[in-house]
Amino acid sequence: MQLKRTLPLAAALATMALASTSAMALASYGDVAAPGVYFGTGNVNGNWTMDTDSGVEVALRAKNRQTLQTIDGSSGTYMAELGACLTCSGAPKAMWSYEFSVNSGSLSGVTYLLGIDHDPSAGVSYSWVDPAAHWADNAIAAAPFNGFQNSQNVLFASTPGGPFDVNMAGLYSVTLQAWNNTSMLASTTMNVQVGAVPEPETYALMFAGLGVLGFVARRRARKQA
User: How many domains does the chain have?
Assistant: First the structure.
């Protein structure tokens, strides 16, 4: 797995996090974050992929930027549309945004890492940032929640690792982690399938085609022999 070093310290901590074998709470899908969404009017709670552990809550979700509706994440995978949003005002925007929420409760000294995957295949190529420092427009929650949230589009220049290719279909991941010194307190990862998922029939045709090509190649090899 490739780690792009947008933040040296963040990348080092992320490497430790991904290699960690410590027991973590299982992620919940399509869940409601506490104390609720507070990064702007019109944003409803729910559809979060989240982990609550060690008194810390970390949550992620995807939103359809054109309709401004959250995408259903109850299956563990968010299905997003391909391409750019043609009806969105302002800077160019992809059809989907990622949103994050953290809640450290009464704990102090908690730091966070957010990783964006740019690899459209089943593999991952994360670029890591500290979300508390990377975005200046985070919405901050008052005590005792000590949390912050934001919504970011994958075409924004501030996207870790750079803006996405909005016409590149594939499976992408976003990871959010909470740390206390060198100990990971909580971690959650959401998967976003951008564009249509190939039907089983498509795979069958593809493999059949490969089989025909292999047969032709063997016949040619025999003739040349």
Answer: 2
Please write the tens of the pLDDT for every residue from 8-31.
444 444 444 444 434 355 789 999
Residues 29 and 64 in one domain: yes
> What average pLDDT does this structure show over 200-205?
45
Beta-bridge partners for 100: 60, 150
Looking at residues 198-222, what average pLDDT do you find? 45
CA 93 to CA 32: how far, in whole Å?
Answer: 26
The answer to whether 49 touches 76, Cβ cutoff 8 Å, is yes
Q: Which two tokens stand for residue 191?
A: 């998967």
Residues 66 and 13 in one domain: yes
Q: What is the pLDDT of residue 21?
A: 33
Name 177's bridge partners. 113, 187
**In a shared domain, residues 6 and 65:** yes
Burial class of residue 190 (count of CB atoms within 10 Å of its CB; 0-12, 13-18, 19+): buried
